[in-house]
Hints:
This protein is an alpha/beta fold and 309 residues long. Helix content is 48%, strand content 10%. It has 14 helices and seven strands.
Amino acid sequence: MKQKIKVIVYNIILFCVLAFILNTVLYVILVSKDIYNYDINFKHICNNYRMFITRDISLQDTYNRLIKSNNYRDIENKNSKKRAIVLFGCSFTYGTGLTPEQTISHKLGVKTGRPIYNRAQGGFGIQHMLYQLSNKEFYKIVPNPEYVLYIFAYPHYYRLYLPESIYSPICYTVFYKSDKKEILKLKNRNHIFDKVIFLYPIIDRFIFNNIIKYDFVKKEANNFLLKHLLKSKQELQKHWENTKFIIFFYDQPFFSDQLYEKLREENFILITPEDYKINSSLKQYQLSDRHPNELFWDLVLTDILSYIE
């Protein structure tokens, strides 16, 4: 029996080592072909992987990172008497690669004179918005806003299902499908799945992007996204009944008409690429690392402001 256990353990270790080597080789190939625009090296990959498998994923750490973190953008117009706007999203919303004056949060502050709370960070997804809206301490930090603006980008889909990657250790799924009814519950992510899934280029660019093409996976992804959005709105309305919930879709790879229809039925305000008529994938609207640049935000700002009084 002991011998069998040893064989199993050795095989698991071997698999992890080989998988890590494969991951590194694939990543180097992708970088060399300019599929990834990151200045990365083997030492950097190893350091990030160490950070990923040793990171603190306790509920207290989740609370500190998402509620009490000092890494959010500065509050715009903090002393304004107007009702605030709260932004959620990932690095796109945070404004990675942009100066504070170039970000969407600053531009909204200038145009509206309202306090702007940018609660986005790099590697975040919808679950990070949901966690904040589900935590009573969050409402002690952010005053009653008139608008919540969630900026959706394509990576938010697979961040609902998978750990972000070894390159962004702070990202983890906070809510999950707990049973056949897909009830969203808070979960402490300390299981082995979080420790061994680190084949980011394979999962992200190859497997996930391929299986998502199938209709049944699209339907599942749309349903899961919908459940997170509905839960977010439900939590928000427990505290802020009059707050309007705006969703800005940076891109829309495979959204269904049913998803849009359902969101509008639930009184979400939607801003889609069909509304602002800009192809976000064009290089003229992106920084070198594919984040939206200042020009993109300048062009869509009018569309966003059309829903803000």
